[in-house]
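Shipment paperwork, digital attachment
Item: protein structure file
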Amino acid sequence: MPVYEYEHVGEGCGRGKKFDFFQTMSSDKLARCPDCGQEVKRLISLVAVSTPKTNSDLKNMGFTKLVKRDNGVYENVTATGKESRYWDASKPETRPDLKSKISD
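Attachment content:
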C-alpha cells in the first residue's frame, strides 16, 4: 500500500505540520486531516532510486559491461568465471556468455 505525504494548510496538529498516510492508489486524496479535521494538501514526494555505481555492483547484479579498448576489441569488466576478459568481434568464442546470466 502506498504512503502519501500530506501537509496541513494551517497550523499542524498532533501529527505535525507534514505527515505520512497509508492509503490505496484508488482512494481519493484526503481533503481533511483524519485526526484534527483541518484542511490538508497532498505533496509530491521525492522518489528514491538506487542504481549500481561500480563495476563490482554491476557484476554482483548479473550485468555485463563492455568497454571499448581497440577497433573491434572490448573488455568485459564484469567477466565472471569462464567468461573471456576480452571480446574480439572477429572471434565469436570470446563473446560474453549472456545465456548463463539470463533466465526465464
